[in-house]
Design a protein that fits this description.
The complex is a heterodimer.
Chain A: H1 4-12, H2 15-27, H3 36-39, H4 42-51, H5 53-64, H6 70-79, H7 82-90, E1 97-98, E2 104-105, H8 113-126, H9 128-131, H10 138-151, H11 154-176, E3 185-187, E4 203-207, E5 210-219, H12 225-244, E6 248-254, H13 256-259, H14 263-272, E7 275-277, H15 279-297, H16 307-319, E8 322-324, H17 332-345, E9 351-353, E10 359-362, H18 365-376, H19 380-393, E11 397-401, E12 410-416, E13 427-432, H20 438-451, E14 457-462, H21 469-474, E15 481-486, H22 487-495, H23 500-511, H24 514-517, H25 535-545, E16 549-554, H26 560-573, E17 578-582, H27 589-600, H28 613-621, E18 629-633, H29 636-643, E19 646-647, E20 650-651, H30 653-663, E21 668-673, H31 675-682, E22 692-697, H32 702-715, E23 719-720, H33 723-734, H34 738-753, E24 762-763, H35 765-772, H36 775-786, H37 791-802, H38 807-816, H39 823-835, E25 839-842, E26 845-848, H40 853-858, H41 862-874
Parallel strand pairs in A: 5-6, 6-7, 13-14, 14-15, 16-21, 16-22, 17-18, 18-21, 23-24
Antiparallel strand pairs in A: 1-2, 3-4, 4-5, 8-10, 9-10, 11-12, 12-13, 19-20, 25-26
Helix pairs in contact in A: 1-2, 2-14, 4-10, 5-7, 6-8, 11-15, 12-14, 18-19, 18-22, 32-34, 33-35, 34-35, 37-39, 37-41, 38-39
Chain B: H1 21-31, E1 35-39, H2 46-59, E2 63-68, H3 78-93, H4 108-115, E3 123-128, H5 136-153, H6 161-164, E4 165-171, H7 175-178, E5 189-193, H8 199-211, H9 220-233, H10 237-248, H11 255-269, H12 271-282, H13 284-296, E6 298-300, H14 306-314, E7 317-320, E8 323-326, H15 329-336, H16 368-386, H17 390-410, H18 414-423, H19 444-453, H20 467-472, H21 476-482, H22 490-511
Parallel strand pairs in B: 1-4, 1-5, 2-3, 3-4
Antiparallel strand pairs in B: 6-8, 7-8
The chains are: A alpha/beta, B alpha/beta.
């Protein structure tokens, strides 16, 4: 086998010899990588034939019928919309196609009968009957059409095969090598690629985190202008950019297009790149040689430190905490270079090199020194010092606690003002000189309950720890999870380049009951730290409230109350005076009066009448620049009561008073509620509700949903693998419903909690699938989306999922099943389902908006089965 | 030697106790500052579990209070209810109850603030028998204010009461309809359900009771009896312990007989099964599911359906994935042979159990006297049936049906009544005793004829022809004339209980 050294030597030895190398390169090109076994993916073809079985039969029937007409086509497509897909396949229509006369063959068959008839006519004009000729075998024709359809994917399979062979090869080289240099080589994650390499190479190799080689791959199936440009310009230019970062480029190029490239192009390529080879050359050992060469003597010219110098620097740092040039046994120039090299070789350590290079020390010198002292001594002083270090580590205020004389060797402090997504704002820190055991943890949890009852986390500092599984399991039965940190951990934390807070949280991630530190809020109001998105709602609220009121409508757990509570802050920032009341328990006017007295300190009689609202406004509005704004959360209950009670013979007098106050500009209101308020706003017979602008609170934007899931997990120091696919899957499982996003997050944290400590820092796509693709989540998904939906609403949503989208068609289908509904009920059902985000308008009808809805139903036997169950309930 | 516990909560110091999974889960949730909703059937270990949950939380230095609403006296105002709560809390804490006036006396938060010890230490309040506030308005206010505490948790400062309080609600009830759904604190709780015992837990318990030590070996015969009991009642703690206490603590020679007797007692004369069946038939939606289950053996559950959830909470059924099944074979037998669950099928087996409807099942009736009469008559009929007095059962059910018809017809407008009378092809009023405008004076024959002609919104009410026969057995001469002895009247009595259930259902639907 020839090595890369040989190639280098031969390149240097003259053009004749080098042209031999070009020939060798060309001759080793693999023209293509097709494999007969998957040239046609028969499984996929058969699956589709089976799926379209009924549509094939329907089309066959059309073929066999004596008369041909657009009506027949239309009828067949109405009965089975998949007939349309099949006909499109037979006509080789892939995506939607527009015709010059304005007609169109859409990708999906529309539900409107008018549209369908137009399409049937268009199919006829195109000549569909020339395909559906008498005696034609539709199944055979469709099979051929499917083979043609799937042919386009063959290139991807070839490319995939090429890439996976390289990936396997690289893995083999790096994992099984006994070479002392190669065994230190690692593949960098994509986000750590040097800038010029991003998106342009497949792998970047590094030693100790420092990149030295990049591998790009290209498979050209044909030769042309673009392909030549890539070979003669793109890769040489990339090599130059990488050189600036001391990284060499290895190109693995193959395919018929490469074979046909002119000699001059290939010669340049072989000369200008660090290494260039075909796949078979790479597999024959060239790749391993190229990597080894670059690692040892490549362009980066890695020069390992003089070993004695490195040892001196390390030991001095560990013992003294700082190293100066003058303390090293070398010339000034060599010593400076050694210090700089040491810092560069240890990016994992928090080291600071003096601007003139004469001095290297720990960035957190003082903390490191303290930690060193603590680790050397295990007495009482060390214990209290350890608490100080943790306080500084978290940038918190510290107050030492008197734990009494019955706790010898145990010291405690309360840390406060901690501002963090994961950590509590107040936290108990205990330091002990004793060995850690279960009863000590119980005592600390109790102390935490006493001194920081709201905190679910406490810290225990001990000289040494052997955190056993039983101690970890015990944590779920304590009032606070306890992260146990030993003195060595403290030393590592302070020396590490990882931010102190992140290092601390990493220990929490590994060592405690994660359910207690899970930042996800699955029940109750979302705190500010977990509030993402809603920028549009913010803008609408502020702009509307200047002279109008707002009715915030939304389904269950969509975040109405959280938004109301955020709105108080927004209004304060916009110089409005806001008054919030939770009206959940307000069932009548007197209850409202009581809440107003309690929450806003106004003076109104015990027996509250709606017109007293003006007294409240007058008391609260005194001397203010702007009229007061009342945020009344969950008013459905009060509204129901108001609708059914009279004042001076008038119904809904409380909300009529709100309307008058709003229209007179004396006050504005933000109401939140669900069904009752929505139906009042949609009711054409209640025009007095026009003082409110309805603001539908629906699912989060994709970006906000991603932040809601990703930010807390990242704060917990959890890495998410396969991010793009993970984001897409999260979006599919939740549709942006904030409760579902948080629920998924919580389930992921719980699944991490079940793992051993070393496996807790990474979440993969399959973990997300595990927590989402199960009956439990499907049930939660449906219950959350359906919320307060009635059985009729639920049935309607299932019918929409089945493809019946217009109110008329739904009513007709229900009637056929024996269920008669009034048009207004049907319209209300559809509007409620739209408000809940389950369906959305599409032309004249509705389609399912919640992408995973049908998947969730499949856990209950699918659309057909669930429809049957709800029909049985309603009949 | 310890003994089986078949009455009340198992004391904390009893060694004969199997720790249940829900206890640790509830404690973990409460320690994690979550609220808990604990649901489970009667005699399924809730009370014993709550005792232990309380003890475990106190071990962690939490203040834990129990409000058992079973002890709540009748309250006519919300203030009275809160006064009882305040006094109860003060008594548990061994402090003097504060005097609370004005608005504060109608605010749960204020009452608790003024009663609980100052500071920031957490307080867990266990509310047992949640459903025991009969007045809708008071119940909605009470739980609505508790829900308000949950909402306030999001923004309250760390030391404020909403952040200190954690609730555990326990009982056997429908959380979705106990209070207005928007005011419900149960929506913000971690929902837990009591679970059946596993076979190995039962063997462990029996070993402990019989041998007095953990891990003691059981002989094969004892294991055989445990397995037989388990095959019949599954892991239901009360029923299992009942059967095993009656079987294993007698001489080995008498065990088979004792086992059969215990099973019969459970089926036909134990309060546990009759109370369960009463709750099932009193809830039309649940009753319909039970009837379908009895016919089909298993049912597919619609997603998130509360009726299906409730039948599990009542204990009759359990969920297996997306399917509903009877919780155990004994319940399955009872349901399949119940003429009240399956009235249309006229099941007549000597083993059928007939239960009385609870008083609130007749709340749709307008006339208080007729309502009381109907309730008493059907209760007497059910008791008579279960003790083999079928003739009395016929009279009772017949009279109860008659009273329901009178009450219903009396609610019709004169125009509706006249229309119905005119629709009867042949009707004769025996004047002056019968007054055509007052159904209360009518003979049974006319009540039946006119009832059938009344237009009902859903389906027609169709009182049975045999009603007169049932009712007339009250006359000794008529009874003798039938020539049937008491025991041979089982089919008729079974049919009568079924007819009663149908008429009750249909008239209630017509009136509501």
């Amino acid at each position: 086998m020839r090595s890369l050294f040989d190639i280098e030597e031969e390149r240097k030895s003259g053009p004749a010899k080098f042209s031999n190398k070009v020939e060798e390169f060309r001759n080793s090109v693999t023209p293509d990588l097709y494999d007969p076994s998957d040239f046609v993916v028969w499984g996929e073809v058969k699956l589709k034939l089976s799926h379209y079985h009924e549509a094939i039969q329907a089309a066959q029937k059309l073929t066999n019928s004596k008369s041909h007409s657009a009506e027949k086509l239309d009828a067949a497509m109405e009965r089975n919309p998949e007939v349309y897909d099949l006909l499109c396949s037979l006509l080789a229509v892939g995506n939607s196609i527009g015709f010059q006369d304005g007609r169109e063959l859409p990708e999906k068959l529309p539900r409107s009968s008018r549209e369908r008839i137009r399409i049937a006519g268009l199919l006829e004009d195109i000549g569909i009957w020339n395909v559906l000729v008498s005696g034609a075998d539709i199944q055979s024709m469709f099979r051929v059409a499917l083979i043609a359809q799937t042919a386009g994917k063959r290139r991807f399979r070839v490319r995939g095969r090429f890439e996976s062979r390289i990936s396997r090869l690289l893995n083999l080289i790096l994992k099984s090598s006994n070479d002392s240099v190669l065994s230190r080589v690692g593949v960098l994650p994509k986000h750590k690629f040097p800038d010029p390499a991003r998106g342009r190479v497949d792998y970047v190799l590094a030693i100790d985190g420092i990149p030295f080689a990049a591998i790009a791959t290209v498979f050209q199936e044909q030769s042309g202008g673009r392909q030549q440009r890539d070979l003669s310009l793109t890769y040489p230019a990339l090599q130059k950019s990488l050189e600036d970062n001391s990284v060499g480029l290895i190109l693995i190029a193959d395919g018929r297009g490469i074979y046909k490239s002119p000699n001059s192009v290939l010669e340049d390529l072989l000369q200008e790149l660090s290494a260039c080879m075909t796949l078979s050359q790479a597999e024959a050992g060239y790749l391993e040689q190229a990597i080894a060469t670059l690692a040892l003597t490549g362009r980066r010219e890695l020069k390992r430190l003089d070993v004695p110098l490195e040892t001196i620097i390390r030991t001095t740092l560990l013992s003294v905490g700082e190293v100066s040039v003058s303390s090293l046994p070398a010339t000034n120039k060599v010593a400076r270079r050694a210090l700089a090299q040491y810092a560069a070789d240890h990016p994992e350590l928090a080291l600071t090199l003096a601007p003139d290079g004469a001095f290297l020390s720990w960035t957190r010198f003082e903390l490191v020194q303290k930690s060193v002292n603590i680790s050397k001594n295990s007495g009482n002083k060390s214990a209290t010092e350890a608490i100080t270090v943790v306080g500084k580590l978290l940038d918190a205020k510290k107050k030492m606690l008197d734990l009494g004389e019955d706790q010898p060797g145990v010291f405690g402090a309360l840390l406060s003002d901690i501002r963090d997504v994961i950590l509590p704002s107040r936290m108990l820190v205990i330091a002990t000189t004793e060995d850690v055991n279960a009863s000590m943890l119980r005592r600390i949890a109790k102390l935490s309950t006493r001194h920081a009852p709201e905190a679910k986390l406490a810290t225990l500092l001990a000289p040494t720890t052997e955190s056993t599984e039983s101690l970890r399991r015990l944590q779920s039965m304590l009032s606070a999870a306890i992260v146990i940190i030993d003195h060595n951990d403290l030393l590592n934390l302070t020396r590490s380049a990882i931010p102190l807070r992140d290092g601390f949280v990493s220990m929490i991630l590994e060592r405690t009951d994660l359910t207690k530190v899970s930042p996800f809020v699955v029940r109750g109001v979302t705190p500010e730290r977990m509030f993402f998105g809603r920028e549009a709602e913010h803008a609408t609220l502020i702009s509307t409230l200047a002279n109008n009121s707002v009715a915030l409508l939304g389904g269950r757990r969509i975040g109405k109350t959280s938004l109301m509570q955020r709105a108080r802050t927004w209004l304060d920032e916009a110089n409005f005076r806001s008054f919030f009341a939770d009206c959940q328990a307000v069932g009548d006017w007197n209850d409202f009066g009581r809440v107003a007295r309690r929450e806003w300190g106004v003076d109104v009689p015990q027996t509250f009448k709606p017109h007293f609202l003006f007294d409240i406004i007058s008391q609260l509005g005194k001397g203010a620049e702007h009229p007061p704004i009342f945020l009344l959360d969950e008013i459905d209950h009060l509204l129901s009561w108001d609708q059914n009670h009279l004042e001076h013979g008038v119904r809904e007098s409380f909300f009529r008073s709100c309307r008058t106050a709003s229209q007179d500009g004396k006050a504005q209101f933000v109401f939140s509620g669900e069904r009752t308020i929505a139906q009042r706003l949609w009711d054409p017979h209640s025009p007095h509700w026009n003082f409110c602008r309805p603001l539908s609170l629906q699912q989060l934007s994709r970006q906000a949903a991603e932040q809601l899931l990703f930010n807390p997990l990242q704060s917990l120091q959890v890495t998410i693998d396969e991010q793009e696919a993970f984001r897409a899957a999260m979006w599919r499982y939740t549709g942006g419903h904030p409760q579902l996003v948080q629920s998924l997050g919580d389930r992921l944290v719980k699944s991490l909690n079940e793992r051993p400590k070393e496996a807790r820092s990474l979440i993969r796509l399959k973990d997300l699938k595990n927590v989402a693709e199960c009956l439990d989540f499907a049930e939660h998904y449906l219950e959350t989306y359906w919320g307060q939906a009635t059985d009729l609403d639920r049935l309607v949503s299932v019918l929409v999922a089945e493809g019946i989208g217009t109110p008329h068609d739904i009513t007709r289908r229900l009637k056929r099943q024996g269920i008669t509904t009034e048009d207004t009920h049907m319209v209300n059902s559809l509007r409620i389902l739209e408000l809940y985000g389950i369906i959305r308008r599409d032309g004249g009808g509705y389609i399912v908006n919640a992408e995973w809805f049908a998947n969730a139903l499949s856990y209950y036997g699918g659309v057909e089965q669930v429809k049957k169950l709800y029909l049985e309930k309603l009949l | 030697m310890s003994s089986f516990h078949t009455q009340g909560a198992v004391p904390l110091d009893s060694p004969a106790y199997i720790q249940r999974g829900f206890e640790e889960r509830a404690v973990a949730e409460l320690l994690n500052q979550n609220w808990v909703l604990l649901l489970g059937p009667r005699e399924h270990g809730k009370s014993s579990g709550l005792l232990r949950i309380k003890a475990m939380l106190r071990e962690e230095d939490l203040t834990v209070l129990t409000l058992d609403l079973q002890n709540l006296p009748p309250c006519s105002t919300y203030q009275e209810l809160l006064t009882w709560v305040t006094n109860h809390v003060a008594r548990e804490l061994d402090v003097r109850a504060p005097e609370i006036y004005g608005d504060d006396a109608r605010e749960l938060t204020r009452c608790l603030e003024l009663t609980l010890p100052k500071g920031s230490s957490p307080v867990v309040i266990i509310i047992d028998e949640v459903a025991n506030i009969p007045n809708d308005e008071l119940r909605n206010s009470f739980y609505g204010q508790i829900r308000g505490i949950s909402t306030a948790r999001g923004e309250a400062p760390p030391d404020a009461l909403p952040r200190r309080l954690r609730f555990l609600f326990a009982g056997m009830f429908r959380p979705e309809s106990m209070v207005h759904p928007l005011n419900s604190p149960f929506n913000v709780c971690e929902r837990l359900e009591t679970e059946d015992l596993r076979i190995e837990q039962i063997r462990h318990l029996v070993a402990h009771i019989l041998r007095g030590e953990e891990g003691a070996d059981l002989d094969e015969e004892t294991i055989r009896y445990i397995d037989r009991a388990y095959a019949l009642v599954g892991g239901h703690p009360y029923m299992l312990q009942y059967i095993l206490s009656k079987t294993l603590q007698v001489s080995p020679l008498d065990r088979d007989t004792a086992l059969d007797t215990a099973i019969d007692t459970l089926k036909y004369s134990d309060m546990h099964t009759s109370a369960l069946l009463t709750r099932v038939i009193a809830d039309p939606a649940v009753s319909r599911i039970a009837a379908q289950l009895a016919t089909q053996g298993a049912l597919n559950i619609p997603p998130g359906d509360n009726d299906y959830k409730h039948i599990c909470i009542l204990g009759l059924a359990r969920r297996e994935g997306t399917q509903l099944q009877f919780r155990n074979n004994l319940y399955a037998d009872l349901a399949r042979s119940s003429p009240q669950l399956r009235p249309e099928e006229s099941i007549a087996t000597p083993g059928s159990l007939v239960v009385a409807f609870p008083e609130n099942a007749f709340s749709f009736m307008r006339h208080p006297g007729l309502r009381e009469f109907t309730y008493a008559a059907q209760r007497g009929a059910a008791n008579a049936f279960n003790t083999g007095s079928y003739r009395l059962a016929l009279v009772g059910f017949g009279s109860a049906i008659e009273a329901i018809l009178i009450d219903w017809l009396q609610t019709l407008t004169p125009a509706e009544l006249t229309t119905a009378i005119r629709s009867v092809s042949r009707i004769q009023f025996n004047r002056p005793f019968e007054d055509a405008v007052n159904p209360g004076t009518w003979r049974l024959v006319n009540l039946v004829k006119v009832s059938r002609q009344v237009r009902a919104p859903s389906r027609a009410v169709d009182p049975p022809e045999a009603l007169r026969e049932f009712r007339n057995t009250v006359h000794p001469s008529v009874a003798v004339a039938t020539g049937l002895s008491e025991s041979r009247l089982l089919p008729e009595a079974t049919q009568a209980s079924g007819f009663f259930t149908m008429v009750l259902r249909d008239v209630e639907d017509a009136m509501t």
